[in-house]
Amino acid sequence: MATIARDIFKAYDIRGIVGKTLTNEAAYLIGKAIAAKAAAQGITKIALGRDGRLSGPELMQNIARGFTESGIDVLNVGMVATPMLYFAAIQECGGSGVMITGSHNPPDYNGFKMMLGGDTLAGGAIQELLEIIENDAFAKPQTEGRMSGLDIFPQYLETIAGHIKLKRPLKIIADAGNGVAGAFAGTLYRALGCEVTELFCEVDGNFPNHHPDPAKPKNLQDVIDGLKNSDAEIGLAFDGDGDRLGVVTKEGNIIYPDRQLMLFARDVLSRNPGAKVIFDVKSTRLLAPWIREHGGEPVMEKTGHSFIKSSMKQNGALLAGEMSGHTFFKERWFGFDDGLYAGCRLLEILSASDNPSAVLDALPQSISTPEINIDLPEGSNGHQVIEKLAKNAKFEGAAEIIAIDGLRVEFSDGFGLMRASNTTPVLVLRFEADSETAIGRIQNQFKAVIESNPTLHWPL
Questions:
Q1: Residue 352 falls within a domain, yes or no?
Q2: In 3D, which of 239, 218, 220 has the Cα closest to residue 327?
Q3: Which top-level group of life is the source organism from (predicted)?
Q4: Residue 444, domain CATH
Q5: Contact by Cβ (8 Å): 112, 54
Q6: Number of folded domains in the chain?
Q7: I want to staple 422 with a disulfide (CB 3.0 to 4.6 A). Which of 11, 38, 340, 441 is the partner?
Q8: Residue that is last in its domain, among 91, 115, 150
Q9: How many CB atoms lie within 10 A of CB 295?
């Protein structure tokens, strides 16, 4: 029986520490396991790409060996942003592809995001890969698969430039945080007619300047400073693998992804009245009424890119987004999360205005906290911790308790959320309200629930 670190098999990807939990042997076994699932579905070819992490080439070599030894042909698209791998999978491999990426995790992490036959592997499908490995239930092919290569960027660029048309050229700043999006962002936005100032667009897996995670305000400080000291009108920032977008106005205001989704929803619904728009449990409570007001149907979903994609398919939704910065366009695009493309759609909308910042600042806004994390004791299962807390939780004055992903408690003047992260051993909290007083009141109720577990410590 093959052995492999079980804890790298997460809710919606595989991720671990290179050389410790994620080894070259593990990559090879994972390749064989994915190939076994692919063969069972009649899939014969898989697109394979990697981000700019230092461990990428070696992991790519080993997972590719697992594929070809199992009879699967590999289309190697090289170093690309994750959405470019998805694009290659859809255009060239019938919706099957694997991206080697650690996303926004520290440099010593890496992992795999996986699609087979147009479906993102998540939850039980990822656990099935572990079972295949532990039971040695690999495919026994008659012949080995073959490896071929393709530069997918020209086709990706041409497809976007073919339908995104700006009303006027914009001056922008693009900050890739030395992640892989930096290899493509400047060329892409210049092709649309923009004047682009590039920040940290040299791909460097050590991430020497700041962490490539636009969800954290401190990582947007360089964009804010750049806007202040130049004539650039808007700032875009990307995560390590280019599937998430951060947005900053000329005045240095961060437009969080749930407010970005308002702008995108208004645009999509203007052409598609009645369409469904999906958002995750962390999003602002102002989003659902905004979607209704603009003629759409709001759908709340649990957090996680694979859950959102699955929900989009089930609901036939044209647009979706989550608070972490993943935005999914099915209208005029393919339905996968793509930070680079989301930036294009944003610029298309803003190019109709002489003052892009005013358009963004006019979007409805409440008082809210950023994501707050509570570290869990070693070996804890976050979902079990939440389940236990929920059993005796009391929330005075609650209008509604939503339990699709942790506990989101709605009040007449705000909401509080606590849920287990699917990627790290933490509980995630978020609060929003009409006033500081209301936020304080809601937080105190959650504090009482959290502190009913003596191993947990209130972080505020």
A1: no
A2: 239
A3: Bacteria
A4: 3.30.310.50
A5: no
A6: 2
A7: 11
A8: 150
A9: 14
Q: Is the pLDDT of residue 247 over 90?
A: yes
Query: Structure tokens of 300?
Result: 């709340």
CA distances in angstroms from 84 to 47, 199, 279, 351, listed in the order given: 10, 21, 23, 25
Residues with catalytic roles: 103
Out of 150, 182, 200, pick the residue that ends a domain. 150
Rounded Cα distance between 213 and 245, Å, is 9
CB atoms within 10 A of CB 272: 16
Q: 208: Cβ–Cβ under 8 A, 6 or more apart, which residues?
A: 178
Q: Is the pTM value of this prediction over 0.90?
A: yes
Flag whether 318 is in a domain: no
187 and 211 Cβ atoms separated by less than 8 Å: no
Determine the structural domain holding residue 49 and report its residue range: 6-150
Give dist(CA 259, CA 266) in Å, integer: 11
**Nearest Cα to 283, choosing from 264, 263, 269, 303?**
303
User: What's the rounded Cα separation, in Å, for the pair 113 and 91?
Assistant: 17
CA 342 – CA 111 distance, rounded (Å): 24
Read off the pLDDT of residues 206-244 as tens digits, 9 standing for 90 and up: 999 999 999 999 999 999 999 999 999 999 999 999 999
The arithmetic mean of pLDDT across residues 294-322, rounded, is: 94
- Distance between CA atoms of residues 2 and 9, nearest Å: 15
User: What is residue 192's DSSP assignment?
Assistant: T
DSSP code, position 9: B
Residue 333: left (phi > 0), alpha (psi -120 to 50), or beta? Answer: beta
pLDDT beyond 90 at 365: yes
